[in-house]
Amino acid sequence: MMDFKGKVAIVTGAGDGIGRAAAKGLAGYGAAVVLVDVKGVDQVAADIVAAGGAAVAATMDVRDVAAWDRLVADTLGRFGAIDALVNNAGIAVPGDTAVDVSEDVWDRIMDINAKGVWLGMKAVLPSMIKNKRGKICNVASTAAHIGLKNAAAYCASKGAVLALTRQAGVQYAPFNIQINSVSPGTTMTGIQKDITDQQRAAFLPLTPIGRFAASEEVSSVIIFLCSEGSSFMTGADVSVDGGMVAL
After folding, report:
1. CA distance 81 to 103
2. What distance lies between CA 160 and its chain's CA centroid?
3. Helices 17-28, 41-50: inter-axial angle, 10-degree rounding
4. Does 29 participate in catalysis according to the annotation?
5. Alpha helix (H) residue ranges in 172-246
6. Which partner from 3, 112, 222, 223 sits 20 to 30 angstroms from 27, CA to CA?
7. What is the pLDDT of residues 13-49, one digit of tens each?
């Protein structure tokens, strides 16, 4: 079920954290991986190739429609198909409340976290529909399920990801395309640099397992949702949050 030999996957936000772990994991199972991020992907691609895998680095902004078109055309030209998309790219910004967040910051969070997911799906789905197969895993968040303080735009953006996953999962199921999401809890990734020690300490009691996730603990679920093991799952969300939403 976890054999990705001959498969091609695009992973956004692959320069660090969950995206990097997912890309390395997919490559380890045999996938050719196209790594997308605004920085850091060259090194990740080099690491994968050095380990015997296949990887292509693409430095691009997920908000750029033309860049998505070029990426898909290049990937199809190089590999012939796109079997999986992991929409992981996202940001969080401190001081994000309904009163205090600026319009520019609101738009930036929504554009990267939500619109970027839609643009990725819009770009890859035509080839998946044509081939009558495909897997898409969108990275949502516990913020899509509960109200987190100081995260108004972030919660809104991840709620949009969750709703879009459900809708698209239903829409494209007849084409043998499974679209699901994963909702991580607090995970020790690069995004944590924008969270204060006080905020981090406040999250810990909300996590029944009593610790935060490693990127690989989230990426293992992403890889499953991109595998044949998830063939009867679509429009679903999997919480990987140490029990936070269950509280």
Report:
1. 39
2. 14
3. 20
4. no
5. 197-203, 215-225
6. 112
7. 999 999 999 999 999 999 999 999 999 999 999 999 9
